[in-house]
């Protein structure tokens, strides 16, 4: 009898121990969060929606080549852009072979071969591009950054061709592309009724007629410095607040620092300790950057992965904000439109973004016409005398007003130097 009682007591002790362990590990809803290591960040109050990396990877433009040196351009989130990209996302590319760019007649392709050219700005790692396109794993170019995909037909050939251009100047052709000649021609035909574009030496494209954009003023909100402080510091109660002479505020816990420039509503966060030695992996840095923004500010608006590596030490990741179909330009006099991070082996050492976010409610809007044809070519010719032009695209110039955030349509001109200028 005594032994049986001991067994019952022992079972009760084991069960109570397991129950206690469960509560310690998982906590009941509404109870305090378990404190983790000091290198982790605690997610605090909701600031903006989260997203995944797949929704941030898409071409900055889609150039449609219709043969006979006729072209047009579709921009993100436009009807034909979405139709064409959804088709390409669903088709597979396999059996890659390396080709010499010297053996590819790009001028011939551009002028005479119907095709679709997708451009990805500064490039996307193949491993991330595989998340939005069915690119079969291939050790031949798995470590490359792809800045252009060109899918086209050749006269009198029964299969479509698909070329992947790397930022290192290497070209890879998919030996197997799950696209027919008819598929490509059908998508190309969408461009026949759209704004015609002419190419300037194959470097960039100019519309042959003026184009229309919507000029808008939208409601905006502002994150507070205290919100960012609570979000970024492990224990915000031990941070010190320093006010600078220029009106900016600095929060620090002796290790990390958060600077908020109140005039521009721009924040810069740095963590010098988060710089471990060792080689970085670009795709993992991008994934870590997305996770970090999800936890510390969120994504109020539409963004695109603009730069994957390429900053100091190739650790910078930049996300470009869009309004409608076009990007919002960040300017020195008003920093808005990008989220920037520096990462080292998956750990964020620097984080910059605007505290302003769009609420998407439009106060007013009107149509603005941007120049095209010979008038635009004349302006560009004068500008090209200073530096070679490598890209031209419509964009929005942001400005704060009493009514909200004003977005003015402009032509953005990217020079070979990397500088982006605004054309009136």
TrEMBL record:
This is Regulatory protein YycH domain-containing protein. InterPro entries: YycH, YycH/YycI_2. Residues 3-415 form the Regulatory protein YycH domain. Pfam families: YycH.
